Amino acid sequence: MNSEEIREKFLEFFEKNGHKIIPSSSLIPTDPSVLLTTAGMQQFKPYYLGEKSPYGDKVCSVQKCFRTSDIDEVGDERHLTFFEMLGNFSFNNACSKKEAIELAYEFITKEMELEIDYVSVFGGEGNLTADKKSEEIWKQVDSSLEVKKFGKEDNFWGPTGDEGPCGPTTEIYVNGIEIWNIVFNEYYKNKDGKYERLETLGVDTGMGLERLAMVSQNKNNVFENDLFEPIMQAVSNNRIIADHLRGAVFLLADGITPSNLGRGYILRRLIRRVMAKGFGDKMENIADIVIENYGNFYPELEQNKNNVFEEFKKEKEAFEKTLEKGMKELQKMGQKISGEQAFLLFSTYGFPLELIKESVKEVDEASFQKEFEKHQELSRTASAGMFKSGLAGHSEQEIKYHTASHLLLAALRKVLGESVSQKGSNITPERLRLDFSWSEKLTDEQKTQVEKLVNEKIAENLSVLREEMTLDEAKNSGALGVFEHKYGEKVSVYSISDFSKEICGGPHVENTCVLGKFKIIKEEAVSAGVRRIKAILE
Ligand code: SER
């Protein structure tokens, strides 16, 4: 069965069973707490919470989804950034657990004629009780099926964003991979992290089309299915390039344009990675293939075709200019390039190491690697949602957020007192997050004071200085150290005038003036005695 037939079969099956077919929503989500649409349920989120659904209480869709959280896995057998998700959804008790499980079972075994390896249910964890009901239902549906019980990590889903409906899941495994996630929305997770029972049961299922096509077409990985084949051929079977270009075409068709912020930044990095790997000339060809193969089902591709090509062209030109500037820098550096210089070319101009090696006589690769790892240290502290190595123009935004985190910590200590210490930090290209010791909710006035202080320091155009010293010297100089055990004998200390001084692996911006406007978007509790601030630079 080809992918087009699978989509159709899925929608027909659920329509026949009382579900209204709803078109995919845009990759620009209606849910403001996420950057991109990551799940089919997002366009229906309010209907799980009592708002009346204009489509009735049972719907189904094939939804365009984009997950940056899986980007490091792209290239393995089954992970993608962009994917299509088949889903059925019900609100207001319209579908019982029994009906949802029976429908899923019938679709997989009868319609798709696939054999289920096993299913899993939520075995309970902490205050969240085990889903005994689903276990019983599976036993009734097919007594020969093995029902495994897993914890929260595997069998509890949601919410998308910071708050919303969520609940235990039951999942179906075929050919060794999870293909269908059936979520029972029984809870509402609120901003403080508490789970409240919802008044009615909601059903939210999601099955990746690419995975289903892979198992049904007996392929070994998602890149071998019928929809990927022509794309893979055009890019010499480079999985990452195939994934990124297909994703970029869909993002562009939904009106996202490459930029240095938010969604635009995600898109820019996909495209620049493609170009840095030497596939820039394939972009138009892939756009044609994607539009041709997906255009029937997603008419927006055809409608926005010109935009897609136009933006690819613009981004190519922008990247070429950056490359040109980088080349000039490189020439200035001479024939012998230090690790730091190579890293600067990599992080600021998007120069892959290979390109540098081709252009000069000697590159200190070992120390490039060290610089790179130092940067990775920063990356590792960051959560899902952020990009890691290998992307051109890689770190500019994260570096800004990193420096802003130092300013924030210093400002908190000025406003709340010197007892405040850092408890954790997490940076993505979209925002910074800082956990710090403090037991009460910050008042509006305190938040305003902190913001004001950070913005004052930004406006003062302060240089960020880096010094190397021993750990003892650093401590004696009054530098704050959060992760000091991670460092070697010599540590780097970054100071921003006399306002902030921290032991830190870097990297940082050279001057605070490039940071833009600092804004706190959220302040919340993490655990007893620890608060969390999320902030952005505008
Ligand atoms: N929302 C769940 C998921 O994304 C099921 O649709 O897996």
Q: Give the end-to-end Cα distance, rounded to a whole number of Å.
A: 48 Å
Low-confidence stretches: 378-394, 483-487
Bound molecule types: serine
Largest sheet properties: 9 strands, mixed
Number of strands: 19
The percent range for helix content is 25-40%
Strand content: 15-25%
Which descriptor suits the 3D outline? globular
Q: Structural class of the secondary elements?
A: alpha+beta
**Helix count, DSSP H or I runs of 4 or more residues:** 17
Average pLDDT reading: 89
Q: What is the CA-atom radius of gyration, in angstroms?
A: 25 Å
Write up what this structure looks like.
The structure is a single chain. This protein has 17 helices and 19 strands. The model is unreliable at 378-394 and 483-487 (pLDDT under 50). Strands 1, 2, 3, 4, 5, 6, 7, 8 and 9 form a 9-stranded mixed β-sheet that branches. The chain has a 4-stranded antiparallel β-sheet with strand order 12-13-19-18, with helices on one face. The chain has a 4-stranded mixed β-sheet with strand order 14-16-17-15. It is of the alpha+beta class. The protein has helices at residues 3-16, 97-111, 132-141, 152-155, 209-216, 229-234, 239-253, 262-276, 283-294, 299-303, 305-333, 339-349, 353-359, 365-380, 396-416, 444-459, 471-476; strands spanning 20-21, 58-66, 82-90, 118-122, 147-150, 156-157, 164-174, 177-189, 195-208, 336-337, 362-363, 422-428, 431-437, 464-470, 480-481, 490-496, 500-503, 518-527, 530-537. Bound molecules: serine. Serine binds next to strand 8 and strand 9.
